[in-house]
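Sequence design from tokenized structure. All designs in this work follow the same two-part layout: the structure record, then the generated sequence. An example of the structure record is given first.
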């Protein structure tokens, strides 16, 4: 939740910087991000919400709650007392402008944040009002992730293509033609490959192609313009473009990482394959393109647990891929049993094969397996590295800016020395 509020601020603060708008809104977003961070700490430290992220219940929860109230009251007072200074100098001129797309982006991010907040506090409120704790499950979050996430994904591609203040239909058509063509071609190819079985996944992939097309178009357009002005090679023009506009083009790389994340999430959730089957030694199950054969069960003594490992041979399209182990760890001292999942990652297709031994009968005479195939899930990890690259580009100090600040510093010091 703090991440969503802070992301909304990073977008809307550009409107304040460029047009002097949304000052009050930006302050509210900053306060909201901080308060939500405190609220998350309060939930985990107070023990109010029972989850794997919660700690033992302690008296520090009340102090956190009091601090949250103090921060909210103080922030409201500061905003109201400085309201005349925060009033916008300009207003939104058109609903079809870059300011408007950033505003739509903010509304969707805040709506998603509030949706998650409601899902978190609903069990607390239901227990306080009805005496019965009603939890909110994955379908609730998945529904709103689709409702708010898909428009957010599309806006990432639309925003950079629209001009500030007001955009004309002619400029929109010129800017949108190549990204829209990329999205159309991607959609047709995906339907031909059978991706139409999941409408949400197909839409996510098509929007992702549109956003990637808009990012590539912005880089190509900027590089072409830089080369026309200064000449030289395409590579020198490209490096000069990024060096002179680090925040802008670093932000585009961050957007590309979010697109990769969206593709990974869509692939691993909308197009995953899940199957459960009871196997005895020598029996086989088929999951997607994989064929798994249960060979035997190994029982060994670990450092602090008895380890049970089922060995399975893995084949795909008739080709042996080796073996995989899945089982359980029995921690006798803590009287707890944990699942030890077998995972095989494919570097070429970027998918993961998960094997879970849910129930072991006898001494391994039969095991209930749950097998999941998650396509493109490794794009989520790759997206994290791309995000870091984009953040470094955006935040890397500019030599020209450093020189300007140094000159300004010398100018300020000169009267003092005189």
């Amino acid at each position: 939740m703090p991440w969503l509020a802070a992301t909304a601020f990073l977008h809307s603060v550009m409107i304040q910087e460029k047009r002097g708008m949304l000052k009050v809104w930006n302050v509210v977003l900053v306060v909201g991000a901080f308060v939500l961070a405190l609220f998350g700490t309060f939930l985990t430290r107070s023990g109010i919400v029972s989850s794997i992220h919660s700690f033992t219940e302690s008296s520090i929860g009340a102090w956190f709650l009091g601090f949250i109230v103090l921060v909210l009251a103080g922030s409201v007072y500061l905003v109201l007392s400085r309201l005349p200074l925060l009033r916008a100098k300009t207003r939104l001129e058109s609903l079809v402008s870059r300011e408007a797309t950033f505003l739509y982006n903010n509304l969707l991010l805040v709506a998603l944040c509030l949706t998650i907040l409601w899902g978190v506090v609903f069990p607390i409120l239901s227990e306080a009002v009805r005496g019965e704790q009603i939890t909110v499950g994955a379908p609730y979050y998945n529904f709103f992730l689709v409702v708010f996430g898909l428009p957010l994904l599309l806006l990432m591609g639309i925003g950079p293509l629209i001009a500030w203040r007001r955009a004309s239909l002619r400029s929109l058509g010129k800017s949108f033609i190549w990204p829209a063509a990329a999205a159309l071609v991607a959609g047709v190819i995906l339907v031909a490959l059978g991706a139409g079985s999941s409408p949400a996944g197909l839409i996510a992939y098509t929007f992702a192609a549109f956003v990637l097309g808009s990012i590539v178009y912005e880089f190509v357009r900027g590089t072409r313009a830089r080369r026309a002005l200064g000449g030289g090679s395409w590579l020198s023009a490209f490096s000069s473009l990024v060096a002179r506009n680090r925040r802008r083009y670093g932000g585009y790389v961050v957007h590309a990482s979010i697109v990769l994340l969206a593709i990974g999430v869509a692939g691993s959730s909308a197009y995953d394959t899940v199957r459960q089957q009871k196997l005895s030694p020598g029996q086989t199950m088929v999951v997607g393109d994989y064929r798994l054969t249960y060979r035997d069960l190994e029982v060994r003594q670990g450092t602090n647990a008895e380890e049970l490992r089922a060995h399975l041979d893995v084949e795909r399209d008739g080709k042996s891929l080796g073996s995989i182990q899945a089982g359980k760890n029995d921690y006798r001292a803590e009287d707890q049993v944990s699942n030890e999942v077998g995972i095989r990652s494919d570097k070429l297709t970027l998918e993961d094969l998960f094997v879970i031994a849910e129930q072991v009968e006898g001494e391994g005479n039969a095991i209930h397996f749950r097998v999941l195939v998650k396509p493109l899930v490794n794009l989520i990890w790759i997206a994290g590295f791309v995000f870091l690259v984009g953040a470094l580009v955006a935040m890397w100090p500019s030599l020209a800016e450093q020189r300007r600040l140094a000159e300004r510093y010398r100018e300020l010091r000169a009267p003092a020395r005189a």
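The longest helix spans residues 98-130. We note this feature because it recurs in several other targets discussed in the main text.
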